[in-house]
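Consider a concrete sample entry:
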Amino acid sequence: MQEHGGRRKYDKQFKEEAVKLVLEGGRPVSEVARSLGVHENLLHLWKRKYKEDPVNSFPGKGHQKPQEEELRRLQRENASLREDKEILKKALAIFSKHPR
C-alpha cells in the first residue's frame, strides 16, 4: 500500500489476498474491510473484478488486460495506416498534376 496524492494505492497481491479472505475464508466483506483498513465498497469492487477475471483482475497502473493492450496497439496501427494513406493520396495528386 502506498499513499499517493491523498489516496492509498494497493498492489495486486494485497487486493488478491483481501478478496481471497472473503471468497475462500468465508469471512464477510465488512469484517475483512474493517480489519484491513479499506472501505467496504472498495473491497466489493475488488471482489467483483476478481470474479470477472481472476488472472487479469488487477493489472496495475499503466498496465492493461491483454485484450485492452491489443486493442490499443491496433488503434495505433490503424491511425498510422490512415496517415500513410493520406500521404500517398497527396503524393499521387502532386505527381498527377506535373506531367513528365
Observations:
- DSSP finds four helices and two strands in the chain.
- The chain has two domains: 1-61, 64-100.
- Residues 66-97 form the longest helix (32 residues).
- Residues 64-100 form one domain.
